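thought: user wants a sequence for this fold. calling inverse folding tool.
action: design(structure=
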């Protein structure tokens, strides 16, 4: 798979089929994850794959409990999802959250049917600097295998129960960074269309200064190396109206 296709079409998939993921596929996903950059090559991570139906049945109620706690915080206006990001549209954010809740409800209701739960643990990770590149590598590798997934942190709301159930040596400092629910998706891959364009969220040389290039639409599957893309927007009106990106 072309790297740009993977980067542009890997999105969070919460509606997953129960079909098992072959072990060799799982191995390729994790082998890609452990190649991710990490500070000093200290590899302060541990990946715990859960596919045992009995363990998933015990985790299911904990996931729903953790998710309920998350939405209690959301309803109270707390947490990072309660409001749009800086400059974001309130109504668009509300619609996004509505769709996310719908797909999240599906995941919660069918949690025990998810074929693979991949727990990612880290130790002394400086805010996730080492573990999140590995998580993203795992999701990209999964995309190349036709496997979808979603990263969720709701089980951190009930971390003590999860640690006990999974035998995590938390006393040694191991902390759950996230859990990936992985499976073959019921939905379709596609480019995220609800992103603010580059020039609205980027600056050059000083905060708030113009980035200098207009990117009015996704550059993939158009010509990713669009002619003149590096030219300042004022001198390249063809880029501003999108005509420099050939379909």
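)
observation: tool returned 247 residues.
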């Amino acid at each position: 798979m072309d790297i740009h296709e993977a980067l542009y079409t890997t999105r969070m998939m919460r509606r997953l089929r129960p079909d098992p993921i072959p072990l060799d596929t799982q191995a390729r996903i994790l082998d890609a994850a452990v190649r991710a950059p990490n500070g000093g090559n200290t590899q302060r991570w541990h990946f715990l794959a859960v596919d045992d139906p009995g363990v998933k049945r015990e985790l299911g109620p904990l996931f729903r409990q953790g998710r309920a706690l998350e939405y209690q915080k959301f309803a109270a206006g707390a947490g990072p999802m309660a409001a749009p990001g800086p400059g974001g549209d309130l109504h668009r954010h509300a619609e996004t959250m509505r769709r996310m809740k719908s797909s999240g409800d599906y995941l919660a209701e069918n949690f025990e049917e998810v074929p693979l739960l991949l727990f990612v643990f880290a130790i002394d990770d400086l805010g996730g600097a080492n573990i999140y590149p590995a998580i993203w590598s795992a999701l990209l590798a999964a995309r190349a295998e036709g496997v979808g997934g979603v990263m969720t942190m709701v089980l951190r709301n009930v971390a003590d129960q999860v640690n006990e159930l999974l035998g995590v040596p938390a006393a040694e400092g191991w902390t759950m960074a996230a859990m990936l629910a992985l499976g073959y998706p019921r939905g379709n891959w596609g480019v995220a269309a609800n992103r603010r364009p580059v020039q609205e969220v980027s600056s050059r040389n000083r905060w708030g200064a113009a980035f200098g290039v207009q990117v009015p639409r996704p550059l993939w599957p158009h010509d990713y190396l669009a002619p003149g893309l590096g030219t300042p927007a004022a001198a390249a009106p063809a880029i501003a109206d999108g005509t420099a990106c050939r379909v």
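thought: summarizing for user.
answer: Here is the designed sequence. The chain has two domains: 3-185, 195-234.
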